[in-house]
């Protein structure tokens, strides 16, 4: 099929619908906790975050799999694994099996995570490529938003049935099977690997990856603790959190569309401003006395996150050694997914160390941490600006 046809492009973009679908069940945490009273809160929260551990492992393994079976088959294998693993909790009420299935859901996504972007860059050029890249990012937010809202709807039928949202994976599986035709590129990938110059990692890349790990670990508290906060404060039910969290991805779509123009105005300050806004949003949430205030705080933090996150991907390309942008981006992705995966563990550890164990306390600690990172990033980036080591605004 012609790569410029609507069906080809729609099918190619469709695989991005489930890229960030792992956390959409975060609002179910209080309900799942009731079914597994012997498990700690951190253990239950792993159900929402363990897919990111599967993603980071299989992002690293995907190139080896592509080498043997090609890109299209790798995407289809990933979608199939994600579909089956995603639906397992609907039928089996065992904490261990659910946790394992969630890991394999992430593993399936990890197989085609990088391909969701690289196929666009390989098949298209210029303005068409830029347009599709913007749509690719938006598709992830759209998928997350729709699935988060569906989780809220299915909750009334029991938390297990909420995992039916992952049946959405059938759509990209069918579309990619029918309308995407790619050459068998196993040998081609192998050949490219030989021709590529040796990549390396430097200290700034490692520091940025650790920085991203901390940012995502702190920010993910909003996904893990919003439902619990509503229950603890009596402001609402867990299903209400699904609608609130959906607002985060909605504002992400809007920011993504206008990100280039926003960056031209804020430039490097987009990162510290984004981090500061995330912290302020958390403070609004923990001090909220109504659902509307919680929603407002979530929107502020989500909008601010959408400002900060893309800048880190831009920055890693600037600080990476020559000819090592791909490796540096991969390392950044590992840091991000580790941050999401370890968020419950880090939050639980901080709670035990400080004796602050409520959901409101979690928002307070993370909010303070994000504001501190905002100050730190402002100082570091200001120093970098003097050395002219900032992203080129002309590339936006």
Automatic annotation (TrEMBL):
It is a multi-pass membrane protein. The chain crosses the membrane at residues 42-62, 74-92, 98-120, 132-151, 163-180, 201-224, 244-263, 270-288, 294-315, 327-350, 362-381. It holds the Pfam family MFS_1. One of its GO terms (cellular component) is plasma membrane. Keywords: Cell membrane, Membrane, Transmembrane, Transmembrane helix, Transport. PROSITE patterns: MFS. It comes from the Bacteria. Residues 1-385 form the Major facilitator superfamily (MFS) profile domain. GO terms for molecular function: transmembrane transporter activity. Gene3D superfamilies: MFS general substrate transporter like domains (1.20.1250.20). It is found in: Cell membrane. PANTHER family: CHLORAMPHENICOL EFFLUX PUMP RV0191 (PTHR43124:SF3), PURINE EFFLUX PUMP PBUE (PTHR43124). This is MFS transporter. It comes from Vagococcus hydrophili.
């Amino acid at each position: 099929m012609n790569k410029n046809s609507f069906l080809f492009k729609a099918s190619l973009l469709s695989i991005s619908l489930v890229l960030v679908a792992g956390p959409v069940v975060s609002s179910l945490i209080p309900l799942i906790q009731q079914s597994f009273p012997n498990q700690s809160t951190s253990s239950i929260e792993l159900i929402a975050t363990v897919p990111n551990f599967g993603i980071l492992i299989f992002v690293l393994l995907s190139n080896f799999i592509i080498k043997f079976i090609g890109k299209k088959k790798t995407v289809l294998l990933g979608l199939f694994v994600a579909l089956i693993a995603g639906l397992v909790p609907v039928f089996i009420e065992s904490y261990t099996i659910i946790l394992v299935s969630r890991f394999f859901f992430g593993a399936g996504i990890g197989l085609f995570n990088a391909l969701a972007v690289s196929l666009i860059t390989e098949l298209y050029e210029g303005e068409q490529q830029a347009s599709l890249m913007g749509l690719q990012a938006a598709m992830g937010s759209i998928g997350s938003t729709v699935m988060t809202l569906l989780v809220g709807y299915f909750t009334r039928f029991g938390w297990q049935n909420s995992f039916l949202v992952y049946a959405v994976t059938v759509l990209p599986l069918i579309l990619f099977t029918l309308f995407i035709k790619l050459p068998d590129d196993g040998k081609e990938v192998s050949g490219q690997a030989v021709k590529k110059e040796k990549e390396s990692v430097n200290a700034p890349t490692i520091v940025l990856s650790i920085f991203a790990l901390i940012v995502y670990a702190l920010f993910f508290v909003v996904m893990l603790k919003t439902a619990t906060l509503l229950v603890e404060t009596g402001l609402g039910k867990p299903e209400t959190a699904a609608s609130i969290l959906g607002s985060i991805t909605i504002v992400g779509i809007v920011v993504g569309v206008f990100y280039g123009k926003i960056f031209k105005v804020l430039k490097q300050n987009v990162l510290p401003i984004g981090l500061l806004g995330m912290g302020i949003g958390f403070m609004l949430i923990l001090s909220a006395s109504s659902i509307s205030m919680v929603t407002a705080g979530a929107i502020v933090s989500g909008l601010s996150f959408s400002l900060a996150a893309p800048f880190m991907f831009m920055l890693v390309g600037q600080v990476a050694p020559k000819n090592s942008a791909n490796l540096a981006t991969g390392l950044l992705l590992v840091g991000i997914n580790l941050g999401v995966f370890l968020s419950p563990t880090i939050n639980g550890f901080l709670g035990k160390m400080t004796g602050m164990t409520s959901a409101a306390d979690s928002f307070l600690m993370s909010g303070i941490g994000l504001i501190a990172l905002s100050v730190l990033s402002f100082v570091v980036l200001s120093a970098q600006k003097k050395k002219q080591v900032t992203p080129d605004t002309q590339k936006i």
